[in-house]
Design brief:
Length: 147
């Protein structure tokens, strides 16, 4: 049996956020956002019987050369830089919740995948990567030598 780490669902996270806001106040989350490092662009991942799909928010990119995408075993590696093109200097930005700057994300995949028939496309600030799940090898007999 697989030992999986429990990750809270969107509903559980929303409930926690609401309860914490009632006790600590909404300003708590704003203060925490300043203190906690931003891990990079936000990513969603889901899988079907045949494919693993990764969606990454990458606003403002102009060409494929700005995105690095590779597969390292069962980990998708996404790297690049999201430009920050505000007409003011950094010290004039009063609130910054969105991610900007260089990033490198290593995204563990829930299933082994193959690059055959896999594809990636970028549209309207969203990178969509569809990776085909590696079909299971058929069971074969291994001969045993007796000597």
């Amino acid at each position: 049996m697989e030992d999986k780490e429990h990750r809270p669902s969107q509903k559980e996270s929303s409930s926690f956020h609401r309860q914490a806001s009632e006790v600590l106040g909404e300003e708590f989350w704003q203060d925490m956002a300043v203190l906690l490092p931003k891990p990079g662009p936000r990513v969603d991942l889901y899988h079907t019987h045949t494919a693993v799909t990764v969606l990454a928010e990458l606003p403002g990119l102009a060409s494929a050369e700005q995105i690095g995408l590779s597969l390292d075993g069962q980990t998708l590696v996404l790297e690049g830089e999201i430009p920050c093109d505000y007409p003011v200097t950094q010290n004039r930005i009063a609130l910054q919740e969105r991610f900007f700057g260089s990033f490198r994300r290593s995204i563990p995949l829930p299933k082994p995948v193959t690059l055959k028939n896999s594809k990636a496309r970028y549209s309207r600030g969203l990178l969509i990567v569809e990776l085909q799940i590696e079909p299971a090898a058929p069971q074969t007999q291994i001969p045993v030598d007796f000597g």
